[in-house]
Design goal:
mainly alpha, 6 helices, 83% helix, disordered N terminus
Length: 210
């Protein structure tokens, strides 16, 4: 009888022990799930932040590159317009000099004294302007030849290597070609740049205001 009682008590003790352990296991499982969910949430937040920063950086880079491209186009537009104005002024000065002094074969001292100093500010500045090479090479070549040939003709007239009258007529031909070909081409190229910017929603001068 005593043995049965002891067995019964032992079984009850085992059952109570199992009942006490079961909630603890469940409690631990729930805690682990909570911890896992927390770290997964943190991981997703970190990944989302990294992706967001990357996309923002990409968008910012694209905008910066676009702004830089449009800004260079605008700068080159101003450059072409300025070169057009400078060449026009120099053509007027050379033609007046040719008509008044060379073609009339005025005295050599007057030919030297009244030789017009050509304005080359824009032309010289173009050497250091990063947008110069975006100007069509044909236009740069035409401008370069105008300056070079006009200087050569006036130099030779002063040295009497050419007759003053002949040098004057050659200068007038040079000016005529500049007005009929180079200046219109330069103006059209500048207007084309302006049109391209306008089609992209950029008006000349607007980028300088930002």
């Amino acid at each position: 009888m005593s043995v049965k009682v002891d067995q019964h008590q032992s079984q009850e003790s085992t059952s109570r022990s199992q009942m006490e352990k079961t909630p603890l296991v469940k409690k631990l499982d729930n805690q682990e799930l909570k911890n896992t969910g927390f770290w997964l949430t943190q991981l997703f937040m970190i990944i989302s932040t990294i992706v967001g920063v990357y996309l923002a950086a990409q968008s910012g880079l694209e905008q910066a590159l676009t702004f830089d491209a449009y800004s260079k186009m605008e700068d080159n537009y101003y450059l072409r317009q300025s070169l057009h104005a400078e060449l026009t002024d120099n053509a007027d000065a050379i033609e007046a000099y040719a008509d008044e002094f060379l073609i009339r074969s005025r005295p050599l001292q007057e030919i030297k004294d009244f030789r017009p100093p050509l304005d080359r500010y824009v032309w010289e500045t173009m050497k250091y302007n990063p947008t110069t090479l975006e100007t069509p090479s044909s236009l740069i070549t035409q401008a370069r030849r105008f300056y070079s040939h006009s200087d050569n003709l006036m130099d030779r007239a002063e040295r009497r290597a050419l007759g003053a009258n002949y040098a004057g007529k050659q200068l007038k031909k040079l000016v005529k070609k500049l007005r009929e070909q180079t200046l219109p081409d330069l103006k059209r190229s500048a207007e084309q740049l302006k049109k391209e910017l306008s089609e992209k929603g950029v008006e000349i001068g607007s980028l300088k205001e930002t």
